Amino acid sequence: MKLTVNGRERDVDPRPGQCLRTLLRETEHFEVKKGCDAGDCGACSVLLDGEPVHSCVVPAVRVEGREVTTVAGLGTPGDLHPVQQQFADAAGFQCGFCTAGMIVTASTFTDEDLDDLPKRLKGNLCRCTGYRSIEDALRSRTNVEQVDGPSCGRSQRAPAATRVVTGTEPYTLDTTFEGLLHIAVLGSPHIHARIVSVDASAAEALPGVHAVLYHRDAPATAYSTARHENRNDDPDDTYLFDRVVRFRGQRVAAVVAESPAIAHQALESIHVEYEELPFVLDPDEARQPGAPLLHADKSADARIADPGRNVVAAIHGSSGDVDAAVASAAVVVQGRWQTHRVQHTHLETHGAIGHLDETGRLVIRSSTQVPFLVRDELCHIFGLDRDRVRVHTARVGGGFGAKQEMLIEDVVAAAVLKTGRPVQWEFTRSDQLTVAPCRHPMRVDVTLAADADGVLTALAIDVLADAGAYGNHTPGVMFHGCTESIAVYRCPNKRVDAESVYTNNRPSGAFRGYGLGQVIFAVESAMDELAGKLGINPYEFRRRNIIVPGDPLVAAHPEGADLTYGSYGLDQCLDLAERAMARTGGRPAPTGDHWRIGEGMALAMIATNPPNGHISEASIELLPDGRYLARVGTAEFGNGTTTIHTQIAATALGTTPDRIVVHQSDTDVTTHDTGAFGSSGTVVASKALLAASHELRRRMAKAAAELTATDPEQAELQVDGVRCGDRLVTPEELLEVAGGRLRAEGRHGGLPRSLSFNVQAFRVAVDIRTGEVRILRSVQAADAGTVLNPEQCRGQIEGGAAQALGASMYEEIITDDAGRVTTDVLRNYHIPQFADVPRTEVYFADTYDELGPMGAKSMSEAPFNPVAPALANAVRNAIGVRPHELPLSRDRIWRLMQ
């Protein structure tokens, strides 16, 4: 059949049942993305005869003779459509995976449509931005600037902006390979079972099937899907394919075939005999005598705290005497809080393509935050040398910690090594919602005590975390969650008891905040209760008890010297938030006797990067045309590090950002980078690049001085070269003096670490008839040190607050009594839409961090952490009843008031 795509007639032959999205991508229209394949997210939006549609639910056969326009058909990087220009000017994207579909939909808007954006954008979801910058784009507001001089501290446009808004910026699977094979995976129908036998002969005999992989093909090497600089941070409790399945949907076998359809057809021909085993879903029951043991077969080398009790990791520590302090206190608060499972819901699902290059080297292109750590673990699993494996990324469509896991690259690598052919595996949205790791659910008991003056005398937490079936990230999440959450308060008597426990639930993993959001929800809720009992303003109560420079940092134990006060702005954040809430602003309160109005606040502290070392090695090189080539290892997935790296290098070298070319996130590009997690992209990778830039600056000045017989100290780097007195030495001359190359390297090991601070405040209205919560005002004050890119940092805070609001109000992975996830499609898992997200006012403390690059601190994870308790405190203030469980959904709030 014939159709027209972007003005060009095409002759295509769609398969029976094929949708328009896959047809377009098979004709290399990679600007059309897959976010859900169910008509829920809008990432695949195109114009069909001028009307926006979700191409994933349009049958391909129905577009015969019709005209399809994708975002690439609206404009090009050199000739942008007005809406594309507006999105670039407003910085209306972060990871950018939703942007193509968003622009396609918005290209049809009239002035009247702008008055009803919540309705007009209900079919297009964004997980990153919080929607404010998207609305700015639609209203033609400009938030970025073209910087011709030093750019740090300015809202510089992202280097990829014009490519993102035209759909020409490639993501993981936006490429083609001749002879590409596809993977489909058979998941376990049982929640806990031993595999007795597998008969794959019928599947292997199907035409188009190249391999069937299961436990007979798996290396006998245990590992963790979690990735850290030190691989021993996580328990080795996982195999490529295991003979025991421990949660429903766990992979049992993988078919590698000529097409996804053949691969899925072959799955039906695999016969597996299972021996079902007892299971346990409740983490408290799981650690009791007689509970089914999930990993009792593991040795001490697996680094599991107590496999005989299903305990993955534990902390028990104290300072002072908590019990005595509680007994003698003027006021005591005790309570139990519960958090739930949340999915990251990055719009680009996990995906990878593997192949063998011309030398036979294994090459993996993956949607990962940690390419170097994935490479190293693949070498560990398959017994390969580092120089025989390359892992790299394109732009990554969101992560939020989820892509600090190795969930697909191991299977893709096994398939490539088995077949010798290029192989691709892509998670579906249902895979993400049912088998991919989620945030750790936690039960947190808090005991607080204070004297009559409102000074804390005791602080104790008892945490029980559900690791799920495997321990990936569980030790780190538990330790991190139990550290900054209580170290932020000065108190002579503290105690931490925490255990993370295996269950037969789907695995938990790394999630924005890395455990802090769960524990801070409980601690900050209890702090508000204590302030209420004392009759002290909640801001003032925090002021009396927060740490200040000079105070020791104490959680279960005193923290080491690697965590210190590089700067301090928590006092400013408290002042900024309180003053903002006192000013007129926000939405008017709804009218009627059934509405109750309340305000609440909470604070959070987070280390600026992970402990135990986080390494980045970078280089920068002068090119003959006066540009600079920067090589860094960290990935870009909406964190904005590419923009920051460009600004830092340009500022250090006295040039303009457009002269900085960044090559990144590729094990061939630089020697090592731990990865883009723990908010480290700015404070670690930027430090390495800054060191390299300073060294290159020194070498350029030296070369120019040699050529002109002048003092290198007097040399001045300019856009077009190095000025020595009246003489401008050109890049070509510099390179000639230097023997043809001017290049410098830099390294940062991530230590010591500083502290970032955030304070969130809300005003809410609660309908006592229905439990509906309306947010009337949202304010967040942040201590980010020197703000290197104000618009980008503001966007990170808004996006973090919006994601936290989703987790606090709407989002919940629901699992039945048999371990089945029932929220298995996006429409049943409510991530915030445009209509759901209030505009958060953002205020920055005025600080300069002695440890960060050019005074900056990290601000990617931090904004998430104080949101849930601030919202819960506002609801408590409105209705007079304390919420103890997330999410704060209408039904829960209604039940609280009965």
Beta-strand content:
15-25%
How much helix is in the residues?
25-40%
Largest sheet: 7 strands, mixed
Low-confidence stretches: none
* SS content category: alpha+beta
Could you say which overall geometry the principal axes of the C-alpha atoms support?
A: globular
Number of helices: 25
Radius of gyration: 27 Å
Strand order, largest beta sheet:
8-10-6-17-14-15-16
Number of extended strands:
31
> Span from first to last CA?
62 Å
Mean pLDDT: 97
Please tell me about this protein's structure.
There is one protein chain. With 898 residues, the chain is α+β, with helices and mostly antiparallel strands. It is 27% helix and 22% strand. The chain is globular, with a radius of gyration of 27 Å. It starts with a strand and ends with a helix.
Please summarize what this structure is:
This protein is α+β, with helices and mostly antiparallel strands. It contains 25 helices and 31 strands. It starts with a strand and ends with a helix.
